[in-house]
Amino acid sequence: MNTWTGWKAGSSHLARDRNVLDRVAALGLQDCLKAKRAEGRLEGCPCSLEECDHTRTRRDARYPHIPYQMDYLFASPTLYERLTSRAARDDVPGDHFAIVATFD
Protein backbone atom coordinates (compact mmCIF):
# COMPACT_ATOMS: atom_id res chain seq x y z
CA MET A 1 0.00 0.00 0.00
CA ASN A 2 2.97 2.31 0.58
CA THR A 3 1.37 4.64 3.11
CA TRP A 4 2.91 5.79 6.38
CA THR A 5 1.44 7.12 9.63
CA GLY A 6 4.77 8.17 11.10
CA TRP A 7 4.43 11.78 10.00
CA LYS A 8 4.47 14.58 12.58
CA ALA A 9 1.23 15.22 14.44
CA GLY A 10 -0.98 17.73 12.62
CA SER A 11 0.72 17.34 9.25
CA SER A 12 -1.35 17.06 6.08
CA HIS A 13 0.64 13.92 5.19
CA LEU A 14 -0.48 12.21 8.41
CA ALA A 15 -4.10 13.23 7.83
CA ARG A 16 -3.97 11.89 4.26
CA ASP A 17 -2.44 8.55 5.19
CA ARG A 18 -4.72 8.08 8.22
CA ASN A 19 -7.66 8.77 5.89
CA VAL A 20 -6.52 5.98 3.55
CA LEU A 21 -6.30 3.49 6.42
CA ASP A 22 -9.61 4.65 7.91
CA ARG A 23 -11.31 4.05 4.55
CA VAL A 24 -9.89 0.53 4.39
CA ALA A 25 -11.21 -0.11 7.91
CA ALA A 26 -14.61 1.33 6.91
CA LEU A 27 -14.81 -1.41 4.29
CA GLY A 28 -14.65 -3.89 7.16
CA LEU A 29 -11.14 -5.11 6.38
CA GLN A 30 -8.87 -6.11 9.27
CA ASP A 31 -5.16 -5.30 9.59
CA CYS A 32 -3.34 -8.64 9.78
CA LEU A 33 -0.06 -7.08 10.89
CA LYS A 34 -1.72 -5.74 14.04
CA ALA A 35 -2.82 -9.26 14.91
CA LYS A 36 -0.47 -11.29 17.07
CA ARG A 37 1.77 -8.26 17.48
CA ALA A 38 3.63 -7.71 20.75
CA GLU A 39 1.99 -4.94 22.75
CA GLY A 40 3.65 -1.58 23.12
CA ARG A 41 5.40 0.92 20.96
CA LEU A 42 7.62 -0.31 18.14
CA GLU A 43 11.15 0.44 19.30
CA GLY A 44 12.51 3.50 17.53
CA CYS A 45 9.21 4.35 15.84
CA PRO A 46 9.04 8.10 15.15
CA CYS A 47 5.25 8.23 14.90
CA SER A 48 3.22 10.71 16.94
CA LEU A 49 0.41 8.24 17.61
CA GLU A 50 -0.39 7.67 21.29
CA GLU A 51 -0.91 3.98 20.69
CA CYS A 52 1.79 2.95 18.23
CA ASP A 53 0.83 -0.38 16.66
CA HIS A 54 3.33 -0.40 13.82
CA THR A 55 5.30 -3.34 12.46
CA ARG A 56 8.49 -2.62 10.55
CA THR A 57 7.98 -3.37 6.85
CA ARG A 58 10.58 -1.19 5.16
CA ARG A 59 14.28 -0.49 5.41
CA ASP A 60 15.57 2.84 4.10
CA ALA A 61 19.33 2.71 3.47
CA ARG A 62 19.54 6.43 4.26
CA TYR A 63 17.90 5.98 7.67
CA PRO A 64 18.43 2.32 8.67
CA HIS A 65 17.59 3.02 12.32
CA ILE A 66 14.02 4.19 11.55
CA PRO A 67 11.50 1.31 11.56
CA TYR A 68 9.07 2.40 8.85
CA GLN A 69 5.76 0.63 8.30
CA MET A 70 4.63 1.42 4.79
CA ASP A 71 3.05 -1.88 3.82
CA TYR A 72 -0.03 -3.65 5.12
CA LEU A 73 -1.99 -6.85 4.70
CA PHE A 74 -5.76 -6.67 5.12
CA ALA A 75 -8.30 -9.47 5.24
CA SER A 76 -12.06 -9.82 5.44
CA PRO A 77 -13.41 -10.52 8.95
CA THR A 78 -14.03 -14.17 8.03
CA LEU A 79 -10.52 -14.69 6.73
CA TYR A 80 -9.02 -12.65 9.58
CA GLU A 81 -10.57 -15.06 12.11
CA ARG A 82 -8.56 -17.84 10.45
CA LEU A 83 -5.23 -15.99 10.73
CA THR A 84 -2.73 -18.19 12.59
CA SER A 85 0.52 -16.33 11.93
CA ARG A 86 1.90 -13.30 10.21
CA ALA A 87 5.37 -11.87 9.68
CA ALA A 88 7.14 -9.04 7.96
CA ARG A 89 10.27 -10.77 6.71
CA ASP A 90 13.42 -8.74 6.23
CA ASP A 91 15.42 -11.63 4.77
CA VAL A 92 14.43 -10.93 1.19
CA PRO A 93 16.19 -8.56 -1.23
CA GLY A 94 14.85 -5.04 -1.52
CA ASP A 95 13.82 -2.22 0.73
CA HIS A 96 10.30 -3.51 1.47
CA PHE A 97 9.90 -6.62 3.60
CA ALA A 98 7.83 -9.58 2.42
CA ILE A 99 4.60 -9.85 4.36
CA VAL A 100 3.66 -13.47 4.92
CA ALA A 101 0.49 -14.72 6.59
CA THR A 102 -0.88 -18.19 7.32
CA PHE A 103 -4.59 -18.91 7.58
CA ASP A 104 -6.11 -22.21 8.73
How would you characterize this protein structure?
- The protein is an alpha+beta fold.
- It has one domain.
- It has helices spanning 12-26, 77-81, and strands at 30-31, 74-75, 83-89, 98-103.
- The strands form 2 sheets. Strands 1-2 form a two-stranded antiparallel ribbon. Strands 3-4 form a two-stranded antiparallel sheet.
- A hairpin with an 8-residue loop joins strand 3 and strand 4.
- The chain starts with 11 loop residues before the first helix and ends with a strand.
- The mean pLDDT is 94.
Task: Name the descriptors.
single chain; 104 residues; alpha+beta; two-stranded antiparallel ribbon; two-stranded antiparallel sheet; 2 helices; globular
Quick structural overview:
With 104 residues, the protein is α+β, with helices and mostly antiparallel strands. The chain has helices at residues 12-26, 77-81; strands at 30-31, 74-75, 83-89, 98-103. The longest helix has 15 residues, at 12-26.
Walk across the major sheet and give the strand order: 1-2
Largest sheet: 2 strands, antiparallel
Rounded to an integer in angstroms, the radius of gyration calculated over CA atoms is 14 Å
Mean pLDDT over the residues: 94
Count of individual helical segments: 2
Distance between the termini: 25 Å
> Any low-confidence stretches, pLDDT <50, length ≥5?
none
From the spread of the alpha carbons, the general shape counts as globular
Structural class: alpha+beta
Total count of strands:
4
Proportion of residues in helical segments: 10-25%
Strand proportion? 15-25%
| Order of SSEs | HEEHEE
Instruction: Give the count of structural domains.
Output: 1
